[in-house]
């Protein structure tokens, strides 16, 4: 339980683990149904954009550009929200996840006709869905960066894997468990998102991601009603 909730960060670790699974779901959707691009991982977005500019088959350049630009705008909006609500980590998470949830929900009807078997080179829907999702993920990344919970970035687990391999004993029992769980949640989220896209539909995958975000929002709102030590910025 200390991995999910601790005296310093309260329920934030558990909530950020759930947002890590959301990242896996959303990137599974974008890779399978939106033109082989990432919307949550900017490193992956830049790589796919480079491949698209080189004319690599199967990667939609317009979707990659839309995802990159929307992510940057979302991160900027997240920064503005941090400037206003950053003094209370609980309220910051409530505000940012509320906005993220709105954008993920807005992408669901757009994504209904998009499937893994559709080639979306000329699909305006794929571009719009990618932009909506990337905007939400930009806000999430900005907020998580401000929350400063160690080893849980929710979108990139490269450093977690590096720490597991490079640090002696993985950095200690709790750090080891936290890093392993972060990697596992991203993996599980991606598997769930891919399963839903391939077997049920893209909208269902986004619906699952939206449900997870709603859970984070509800818990963050409930635990922010009364003052607690973890609310203070770190």
SS content category: mainly alpha
What is the annotated CATH architecture? Up-down Bundle
Poorly predicted ranges: none
Our count of domains comes out at 1
Count of DSSP-assigned helices: 8
Quaternary structure classification: single chain
Q: Tell how many strands the DSSP assignment holds.
A: 0
The CATH class, by name, is Mainly Alpha
Quick summary:
By secondary structure, the protein is an all-alpha fold. The chain has helices spanning about 10-35, 40-55, 60-85, 90-110, 125-145, 160-165, 175-200, 200-220. α1 runs antiparallel to α5, α3 packs antiparallel against α4 (about 90-110) and α3 packs parallel to α5.
Secondary-structure map with pairings?
Blueprint: H1 12-33, H2 42-53, H3 61-85, H4 89-111, H5 124-147, H6 158-166, H7 173-199, H8 202-222
What does this structure look like?
- With 234 residues, the protein is mostly helical.
- The protein has one domain (12-224): Growth Hormone, Chain: A.
- Helix content is 70%, strand content 0%.
- It is built from eight helices and no strands.
- It has helices at residues 12-33, 42-53, 61-85, 89-111, 124-147, 158-166, 173-199, 202-222.
- α1 packs parallel to α7 (173-199), α3 (61-85) runs parallel beside α5 and α4 packs antiparallel against α5 (124-147).
- The mean pLDDT is 89.
């Amino acid at each position: 339980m200390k991995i999910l909730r601790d005296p310093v960060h309260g329920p934030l670790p558990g909530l950020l683990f759930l947002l890590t699974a959301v990242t896996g779901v959303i990137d599974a959707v974008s890779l399978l149904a939106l033109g082989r691009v990432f919307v949550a991982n900017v490193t992956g977005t830049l790589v796919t954009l480079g491949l698209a500019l080189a004319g690599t088959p199967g990667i939609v350049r317009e979707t990659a550009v839309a995802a990159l630009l929307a992510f940057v705008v979302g991160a900027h909006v997240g920064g503005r929200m941090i400037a206003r609500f950053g003094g209370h980590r609980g309220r910051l998470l409530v505000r940012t996840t509320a906005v993220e949830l709105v954008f993920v929900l807005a992408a669901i009807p757009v994504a209904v006709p998009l499937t893994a078997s559709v080639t979306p080179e000329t699909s305006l829907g794929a571009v719009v869905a990618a932009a909506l999702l990337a905007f939400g993920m930009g806000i999430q990344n900005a907020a998580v960066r401000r929350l400063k919970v160690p080893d849980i970035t929710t979108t990139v687990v490269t450093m977690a894997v590096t720490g597991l391999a490079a640090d002696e004993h993985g950095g200690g029992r709790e750090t080891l468990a936290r890093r392993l769980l972060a990697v596992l949640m991203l993996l599980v989220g991606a598997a769930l998102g891919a399963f839903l896209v391939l077997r049920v539909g893209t909208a269902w995958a986004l619906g699952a991601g939206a449900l997870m975000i709603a859970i984070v929002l509800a818990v963050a709102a409930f635990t922010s009603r009364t003052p607690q030590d973890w609310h203070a910025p770190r």
